[in-house]
Amino acid sequence: MPLSQPSNESLRSRFELKTLLDTSRLLIESHDTDFILNNLLLIVMGKLFTPKSAIVLRDDDGKGWQLMRAKGRTGLKEGCRFSPGPHEDNPDKPCLTLHELPKSFAACFEETGLQFFFPIRTSTELLGYLCAAPKVGGKPYSKTELEFVENLVIISAVALSNSMLVSRLRSTNRELDQKVQELNTLFEVSREFNALVDRSQVLSVFRFTLMGQMMVRRFFFLTRLEGQPQFILQQGLKGSITKVEKEQLLLTDAECVFTHELAAAPAYLTDNQIEVLVMVKLQDECAVLGLGAKASGQPYSKSDINLLISLGNLAFLSIQKTFLLEERIEKERMEEELTIARTIQNTLFPSPLPAPEPFDIAALNIPSRQVGGDYFDVLCADDRHLYMVIADVTGKGIPASLLMANLQAMIHVLSPLKLDIAETTGKINDIIFANTPSDKFISFFWGRADLETQVFEYCNAGHNPPVYWDAQKGKTGLLTEGGMLLGALNTMIPYQSGKVQLYTGDVVVMFTDGISEAMNEADEEFGEERIAEIVAAHHHKTAQEIKQLILDEVKTFCKGNYGDDVTMLVFKMNPQ
Questions:
Q1: DSSP per residue, 1-70
Q2: What dotted CATH number matches 8-167?
Q3: Using an 8 Å Cβ cutoff, are 54 and 67 in contact?
Q4: N or C terminus of the chain: which is more exposed, having fewer CB within 10 Å?
Q5: Where are the domains of the chain?
Q6: Of the candidates 387, 320, 315, which has an alpha carbon nearest to the alpha carbon of residue 350?
Q7: What confidence tens digit (pLDDT) does each residue in 495-540 have?
Q8: Contact 378, 363 (CB under 8 A)
């Protein structure tokens, strides 16, 4: 029996099924969204004989829509976006007419001529719509045609969902690659910075990193140096900016600011087309990194800003490190110089102390810094005369020590001349007044003991009066005769000298104000009376023991916080 020939309807169904299968394979295998959308439109327009069609897709956030593709004169522009408001999907209807859409959504298509809307949906979400105009000639679409398009849209929805997923994965991979590149950049720059100690080299690496990594040609790095706002790096900029405007930039609160957001951007920024300001903070220090447009013309992304913040922090930290290193080197240099100065100063003090019979002499000097302005001396001008000197230069440190050295030199030059001690003090005063600043003074006491007659002649030029224990009378007194401080004024009133006849058991304690003005926690001074009491109680002991007793009492009183140079010179008359 011969086989019957298939009907036209059967052949058409087979053809449509084959078309769907071929299209399904073609679309699903493609991960190109543009390819899927273009083929979907072309197949639908060819099948339905419609003069125009379009595809709209939802934005990723689901709040807006974008026209992805349009064929024919729809009046819509590809890429345009619109936000018609909330949109509820109707999963039971595979094809909607314009009037079945939500009113706000339908209003966007009223002038387009598009009347039929096929939802492009997966099992979980509505992706968008395939929009079509009525058939050419005004004939209605057949049930077969609509079913074909509905099936094609279902297949396309799967393909479109897959392509979107692939696109997101590719985007994520690109972002990850960029992050890896940024991390590698930060690692390399950090390693470079850590190996550098020269500030100019750090800034050079930072300059080329900005130019190479960010592709910017105009930028600046602004911070404070010695309290003043200064550019430490500039590239491709012209014009000037005021100090006030610099300060305003450094007071920016936000971590990142685009210059168009500033209420009143300085002309320096606009003239140089600076687009973004990045704040960099390190404890109490801050800096501003300003950058012009990227050479690529692309705007600064959030990732770019994060990279700039990281680069800025690395650079600023390294720059601060160079300042600290310079300070450390300078400090070490100063400490070395002060150590040398202290060594030199120590050579100016007599060692060992001369101690001709019957004198028992002890002395000490404790500078509050490495070098100080206190001075003591004991020198034999000849076999008969012994000079004992103590002085305190105003201030501390190097300046005071230099003035002290000058005084020591004058004493050593003048003492062998055996001049009148009061007159010599006047000459010393005139020299110091003529050769030192007006704010530098010296409190000065010196005395000359005659080893034969045991007469001690002294002159006190504004110094703390030495405590004198008179063994004959059994009481203490003060050696006050003299005149004003050295270097305060020219010698208009002659200095006076005093004389003391020394006997066995007599004690003289010379000291600077580091002893008498040492303070306890109640802000009470140690005072000269306490010194006199110690001398009166322990006058029978040696000069060394008396000196140590006084020092121990002062140290206990102020808990070791002297606050000034401490110098003491003690002599006692032993039996001959």
A1: -PPPPPPHHHHHHHHHHHHHHHHHHHHHH---HHHHHHHHHHHHHHHHT-S-EEEEEE-TTSS-EEEEEE
A2: 3.30.450.40
A3: yes
A4: N
A5: 8-167, 196-325, 349-573
A6: 387
A7: 999 999 999 999 999 999 999 999 998 999 999 999 999 999 999 9
A8: yes
Among 385, 390, 370, 376, residue whose Cα is nearest residue 420: 385
Q: Model confidence over 296-339: pLDDT tens digits?
A: 888 998 888 888 888 888 888 888 888 888 888 888 887 877 77
Binning pLDDT at 50, 70 and 90, where does residue 1 land? Answer: very low
Pick the CATH number of 196-325 from 3.50.50.60, 3.40.630.30, 3.40.50.150, 3.30.450.40: 3.30.450.40
- HSE-CB of 574 using CA atoms within 13 angstroms: 13
Residues 6+ apart with CB under 8 A from 461: 425, 429, 442, 443, 444, 445, 482, 483, 484, 485, 486, 495
Kindly report the CATH number that applies to the domain delimited by 349-573: 3.60.40.10
Tokens of 347: 């050579």
pLDDT tens, residue by residue, 199-227: 888 889 889 888 888 889 999 999 998 88
Do the beta carbons of residue 179 and residue 70 sit within 8 Å? Answer: no
Same fold, 196-325 and 349-573: no
Q: Any idea which residue has 């058939």 for tokens?
A: 135
Q: Return phi, psi of residue 88, to 5°.
A: -100, 130
Average of pLDDT values for 291-296? 90
Q: Which residue has the higher pLDDT, 75 or 28?
A: 75
pLDDT at residue 509, as a whole number: 97
